[in-house]
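If you are new to this repository, start here. Below is one unmodified record pulled from the training split, so you can see the exact layout before writing a loader.
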Amino acid sequence: MSLFQYPKSKHVRKFGPPTYKHYQTYKRWLQAEFSRVCVYCRQPDSSSPNLNFGVDHYKPKGDSRFGHLLCSYGNLYYCCGSCNSRKNDDWPTDEKAGPYVVNPCDHEMADHLRFNVKSGRIEPRSSNGTHTEKLLQLNDVESIKYRNNTFVIIRALEAEIARLDAELKESENCLSRGIITQAEHDADAISIRADRDAHQCVIFAQNGGLPLALSRKQQNYLAPAKP
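And here is the target side for that same chain:
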C-alpha cells in the first residue's frame, strides 16, 4: 500500500498469538500484524529510530467496562505515541450513535479518511472520519510538514536512482563499444549499485518498506487462512 494511504478493505488478523499476562508483550506481534505502520495516522515506525510506538487498546483500558479486554489480541492495535495519547479513553457515550475512531479491522478506513498527496492533509469522508481526524489531530502543522517533507525526500531519491540506472546503462554501452574495459565497467557497476542500494534503503525507511522478519514463534502462530 502507498505511503499514508488508508486501506480500502478490512484487515483480517493473520496472527493468533498465545495469551500473555502483560499486554505490552504483544507489541512485536502487532508491529508485524500491521506492517510496522500506525493504524491511525499511517506513519511507519521506520521513518525515525526515536519514534515511540506502542500498544493501543481500541476499547480503552481506562474504561471499567472493558477490563476483560486488557490482554485480548483482537482489541489491540499498533499505534504511534501521539495517536495513542490523543485517543486516550475515547469511547462514545451512546454506542449505537457513535462517533467512533476508525480502525482497520472494523472499518473500511478509506471510506472514512483519505490522504491527499498534494496537500499532505488527511481528509475526513464521514462523521467517524471527522471524529478521528479531530481527536487525533491528524492535520496538525507538524504532521502535515512531515508528510510533505517525506515525499520531497522520496521523489529526490527516486530521481537519483533513475540517474544512476541511466549511468549504469551508459557504462554498459561504453563496454559494448570498446570505449572502456571490462574491469572499468565492473568497477563502475559496483559503485553505482552500492549508491543505488543506499538510496533505496532510505526510501524504504521513509515509506515503511524495510523488511520485518517474523520470529519463529510468530510463524508458528500464523492464523489459518479463511476459505
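Two things worth knowing about this chain: Residues 144-207 form one domain. The radius of gyration is 22 Å.
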